[in-house]
């Protein structure tokens, strides 16, 4: 289980021309000091001014804070190795500025990861350049087009990166939690900026509780059930609407990390309207004992958890999804600090001592599914169990009545049906559970097992 989960488990602009550097903050001797230094040279920089002239040329160093990457945030001041004091970036930058810089950095990280021809030095230099470009815009440095020498990094690569970073920022506003730190002391100030993906993909699957009656019965259909997704328990603040297909599945919807509530608003043919309100929550941490999430004691959801002691949770990252359902227990404040460290956006929701209102729940006996669609032509599916739970077999299974006609294989989108012998067999680890094989089978000998 751990191996699978580990793979899964994100000044005012109108006055900008007045400033040539970020606003300063007082340094107090009692505060923690961080060692900052400039290590190896990473490349020649040309400080291109907005009028097209080159203001200066210099060989930029690789800045670090306690050995971790950091970036110059004052292009007009020389750097000196030494101890500096850290402050939250929000004390000197607006949320918009932090997001702009952090998302620009995130794009360059993704770009250089996928373009292996760039050296680690040039990857760092590109990150530093986008930091300067964005701060120049915000702070009026008039060098919005600062660049590396084309002898270092080609013009085509730099143009692609800089244009891509701007587009990435526009397209991803609100999808990431962005924050940062600024290090102040003698000489040039340094900054660190982070963008952590704060959205996931949610979907709903409707199933029949009495398949003996409903399967193959034209009086019933899983298609057309409509669900509302809401941000409040009273289901008044809608964030999405989802409708099921013939297999009971909806499309996916992207949601920011939070608690959501789901209610059926229209029942499909033959079924009564489900009046229950279901809660969608996020996994936030896991270890050998289970999977953890948290909620505030004052919420109705907290009371529901304490009463039911059962929950279903899901998470999605990089086209890999994990879903789990099973027994939970309240463990108070245990693991609360580490959950906040691994999910830093929570510090903004519950700053300081206000997190005392939260308690942690552990999912300790559960079954679920791992689903990887990162390679669409070869999806991977597996079963997950936690604790003493025994895996329940789910999926489509071909019976002994199979005549080997191979029609099922002809409609299978994953081509995961082995037709080398009769009866043919389905590779469950690659099956999408779409049900097309069962629909086309002339002998109707493909059985759907479990709640898919």
UniProtKB/TrEMBL annotation:
Keyword DNA repair: no
Record's signal peptide: 1-29
Annotated 4Fe-4S ferredoxin-type domain residues: 394-421, 422-451
Molecular function GO labels: iron-sulfur cluster binding; metal ion binding
InterPro entries noted in UniProt: 4Fe4S_Fe-S-bd (IPR017896), 4Fe4S_Fe_S_CS (IPR017900), Ig-like_fold (IPR013783), SpaA_PFL_dom_1 (IPR041033), Split_barrel_FMN-bd (IPR012349)
Pfam families: Fer4_10, SpaA
PANTHER family for this protein: FERREDOXIN SUBUNIT OF PYRUVATE:FLAVODOXIN OXIDOREDUCTASE-RELATED, IRON-SULFUR-BINDING PROTEIN
Protein name: Pyruvic-ferredoxin oxidoreductase subunit delta
